[in-house]
Design brief:
This protein folds into 2 domains: 18-143, translation initiation factor eif-2b, domain 1 (Four Helix Bundle (Hemerythrin (Met), subunit A), Up-down Bundle); 145-352, Translation initiation factor eif-2b, domain 2 (Rossmann fold), CATH 3.40.50.10470. Helix 2 runs antiparallel to helix 3 (60-75), helix 3 packs antiparallel against helix 6 (125-152) and helix 4 (83-98) runs antiparallel to helix 5. The protein contains 11 helices and 16 strands. It is of the alpha/beta class. The strands form 4 sheets. The protein has a 7-stranded mixed sheet with strand order 6-5-4-7-10-15-16, sandwiched between helices. The protein is globular, with a radius of gyration of 20 Å. Bound molecules: 5-S-methyl-1-O-phosphono-5-thio-D-ribulose (MRU). 5-S-methyl-1-O-phosphono-5-thio-D-ribulose binds at residues 58-61, 104, 165, 167, 171-172, 177, 204, 243-245, 255-256, 321.
């Protein structure tokens, strides 16, 4: 994979959400951003699992990377002659990591990769695990840079874009998926306007995305999620660009709640819809979106803003935090393996096999 040469990564990519210190995992606490920039140290795999569940670290690729480092931490508690023996002892910790969030397939993908590596490792299995976790992170960053160039290539100069949730450096090893395309599109002067939806209820757009872009000197305009259709009607955006938590064999894509309604509104207004995700987000074992487990979180997330309650006591709330956009509403899926236009079962199979 060749990274594009016309992007100054030092300018466009400042933040790292996951730092391995050699004996602990430092996670940039995304619950506290943007006003408190603080790291949480995890020194056990169960601490990593809790951090993933609590959204201290979040975003599909980032939780896969964090889980891989969680396996490295779990390995520190186990004595074994080789990887196969270690795998048996580590399986309960792997399962607890896997259970920390259900929708993003990158978590299960990273753990499966760590399992496969461990199964064939010899006496140096602990070092092998560490090298593998590092490789998962390094490959993610390279994939993001490559996708940035591929996705930006689809955007005509002077375009406006709307993004949802946070898909940037904070959600990945760096640079980001959808936000990587936006960074590359800005660097290449293709994108003239960036809009970001707040992303209720957890406010990934309002708290994370616009702050992250501000670090790069990219002006983004925040909108209420409910302003998206109206924005499209004005003609200010030509592309909606989002990330993904799981892309099925037919192109159906799970992403942050609210993505589906953006895709419907985009099709209605003639706005193009792009999904950007590494191949670790593609799940060819899941035939279509109806089979994806949608995470339900505490309804309490809907009862207030910034810790202040805004809803009367005794109100019920429903809080699914992902939805599924049907493949037929997607104009382009961009992975590091290439661009799939108007995904179908056949084009997904051609790119990713069975
Ligand atoms: O609940 P979150 O914040 O983990 O949800 C994140 C998203 O839905 C992102 O769009 C997705 O994981 C892609 S991140 C590159």
């Amino acid at each position: 994979m060749n990274a594009p040469t016309d992007i100054d990564y030092a300018r466009y990519d400042h933040i790292r959400p996951i730092l391995w210190t050699g004996d602990a995992l430092q996670l940039l606490d995304q619950r506290k951003l943007p006003f408190v920039v603080e790291h949480v140290a995890c020194s056990s795999s169960d601490e990593v699992a809790s951090a993933i569940h609590a959204l201290t670290v979040r975003g599909a690729p980032a939780i896969g990377i964090a889980a891989a480092w969680g396996v490295v931490l779990a390995a520190r508690t186990v004595q074994a002659d080789d990887g196969a023996q270690a795998l048996q002892k580590l399986e309960p910790a792997l399962q607890r990591l896997n259970a920390s969030r259900p929708t993003a397939v990158n978590l299960a993908w990273a753990l499966a990769r760590m399992r496969r590596t461990l199964a064939v490792a010899g006496a140096d299995w602990q070092q092998v695990l560490e090298t593998e976790a590092e490789a998962i992170a390094t490959e993610d960053l390279a994939a993001n840079r490559h996708m940035g160039a591929l996705g930006a290539g689809l955007i005509e100069a002077g375009s406006g874009v709307l993004t949802h949730c946070n898909t940037g450096s904070l959600a990945t090893a760096g640079f980001g998926t959808a936000l990587g395309v936006i960074r590359a599109g800005m660097a290449q002067d293709r994108i003239a306007r960036v809009f970001a939806g707040e992303t209720r209820p957890w406010l990934q757009g309002a708290r994370l995305t616009v702050w992250e872009l501000q670090q790069d000197g990219i002006d983004a305009t925040l909108i209420a999620d409910s302003a998206a259709s109206h924005l499209m009607k004005t003609g200010a955006v030509q592309w909606v660009i989002v990330g993904a938590d799981r892309i099925c064999a037919n192109g159906d894509t799970a992403n942050k709640i609210g993505t589906y309604q953006l895709a419907i509104a985009a099709r209605h207004h003639g706005v193009k819809f792009m999904v950007v995700a590494p191949s670790s987000t593609v799940d060819m074992d899941t035939a279509d979106g109806s089979q994806i487990e949608i995470e339900q979180r505490d309804p309490g997330e809907l009862f207030g803003v910034g810790g202040s309650r805004t809803v009367a006591e005794g109100i019920a709330a429903w809080n699914p935090v992902f939805d599924v956009t049907p493949g037929e509403l997607i104009d382009a899926i961009v992975t590091e393996r290439g661009v799939i236009l108007a995904p179908t079962v056949a084009s997904m199979k051609a790119a990713f096999g069975d």
